[in-house]
Amino acid sequence: MSLPPVSLRQLEYLVAIAETGGMTAAAARCHVSQSAVSLAVAELERVLDAGLVIRGPRRGTALTPAGRQVVAEARAVLGAVTELTAGARRLGREPAGRLRIGCYAPIAALHLPAAIAAFRAEQPGVAVEFVEGTLAELQAQLLDGTCELAFLYRQDLVPGIEMAVLHDRPPAVLLPAGHRLGRRKSVALRDLADEPLILLDVPPSTRYFRSVFDAAGVEMRVAHRAGSFELARAMVARGLGYSLAVQRPPVDVSVEGLPLHVLPIRDRVPTTPVVLGWAAGARLTRRAEAFLDCCRTLFGSGVSSTPPPEPGPRRPVKASGAARRK
């Protein structure tokens, strides 16, 4: 006797459990009763002949290793069905559905709002969700299908991540107002060797900035470590030292409204490009392709997709010409 086929509803409920952390929350998301979710998952386990969910009054709901694998595959199936449905309804003219993107937390404020706003104006039929995280967390979510795309630095990329470079800017020196070097057009790191350095100490920033100092032949002497970009800028503006930054807000003031000098580094140093990454070998949905095109235009590099780099930062290179889709 053949078993009934797996249903999309069963897969939807299982993914909802994985994303919400429990059957009650999954039922609320799917607008059904908890018993409906429980019965559907039990039937799915029977069909697949595998335990997918660990149930317990104290432990709550957790996925088994088999459950995590099925969830990753279920996301791909549900995404493909959504894309198929949206394509049929729109006759292939407009992207639709839900797009979930990730962003490396330290660069989120300078990328997510602009990207989401620009994309919403272009594609109002797509609902965008986002999550912030570390580089490691976001790459794991790309590989298991939780996110379709993620803003990352081109550092510490694991096998299986494909990417497109959005922009590649050299780091700059941050100095307080009135600093002796503030009126220069650029600064050599050697000129700051004896001054206190305020280091943005968020992985992988420490290793990257150390490579910048190594390239300039200057010892990195850290006086203070800041856990956020804005804290580092605020400490500089208060005259507590100097810092380095890759990202640059349009206004050179701290969160307290104090002015800063932001000057190019005269030394030839490595860069750390910002990229949009996705799981290698995965077929990007129409909405993900549209978001990628939007970000290429918005952030303006025009660099085509590339395979992951060798470990370690790279030196600056000139951007290529017109972008070419793989």
Question: What does this 3D model show about the protein?
Answer:
Helices cover 36% and strands 20% of the residues. It contains 9 helices and 13 strands. The chain has helices at 8-20, 23-30, 34-48, 65-90, 112-122, 135-143, 205-216, 229-237, 286-299, and strands at residues 53-56, 60-63, 97-104, 126-133, 149-153, 161-167, 172-176, 197-200, 222-226, 243-245, 260-264, 274-279, 305-306. Strand 1 (53-56) and strand 2 form a beta hairpin. The two termini are 46 Å apart. The model is unreliable at 301-326 (pLDDT under 50).
The assembly state of the depicted protein chains is single chain
Give the beta-strand count.
13
Distance between the termini: 46 Å
The stretches of 5 or more residues where confidence is low (pLDDT under 50) are 301-326
Reading the helices and strands in chain order gives HHHEEHEHEHEEEEHEHEEEHE
Q: Summarize the main sheet.
A: 6 strands, mixed
- Order of strands, main sheet, comes to 4-3-5-12-6-13
Beta-strand content estimate: 15-25%
Our count of helices gives: 9
**Helical content band:** 25-40%
**What average pLDDT do the residues reach?**
85
Shape: elongated
| Rg computed from alpha carbons, rounded to a whole number of angstroms | 24 Å
Structural class per helix/strand content? alpha/beta
Main traits of this protein?
326 residues; alpha/beta; six-stranded mixed beta sheet; 13 strands; 36% helix; elongated; disordered C terminus
Structure, briefly:
By secondary structure, this protein is of the alpha/beta class. The chain contains 9 helices and 13 strands.
